[in-house]
TrEMBL record:
PANTHER family: GLUTATHIONE S-TRANSFERASE. Pfam families: GST_N. GO terms for molecular function: glutathione transferase activity. Residues 2-83 form the GST N-terminal domain. This is Protein CBR-GST-15. One of its GO terms (biological process) is glutathione metabolic process.
Amino acid sequence: MPQYKLTYFDLRGWAEPARQLLHLSHTPYDDVRIPMADTEKSWENLKEKTPFGQLPVLNVDGFDIPQSAAICRYLARKFGYAGKNPEEEAWADAIVDQYKDFSVAFKTLIFAARAGKPQEDILKIRYEIFNPSRDAYFEILNKILKDNKSGTCLEKLKALDDDNEDHQKLRKYVEKIYSTPDLEDHIATRMDTEV
């Protein structure tokens, strides 16, 4: 059996979907987390050793796979979560790519808060950049759920509005995923981080 090592900072962030795929597939792995308090020092030492100078990185028997979406696509294909045929696999890839479009607005809001921008600037980003992007993304996700009848870490940003019916449909779907027996323990014991 291959040996897996996932390296990322000590938060959920871009590595969390890979962690969930590894838990769903009952695949043991080494979850290497760089403390955020040490980020600059640890990261400078590690940066030259990582492909593309970025994290997360999944190491499979000495072979490094960089980029969170590539890692998730690899794991999903390897463990049977990418679709049953090439068309379903392409559809899963399209959903990932749609998320990457949304993540630009998500990162803008997170980085503004981390940089200590004034509250009025953060609110402006939230209402002019993040919320419109979020609403467009959620509309797409709700359409996918409705069309597929198949039954995000956005709670920290309070991205799901209590008074929005479509947001509540997404919340119920997230709760359904989080209650999957193979994920329950991981969700219950994972580190509580900003992202």
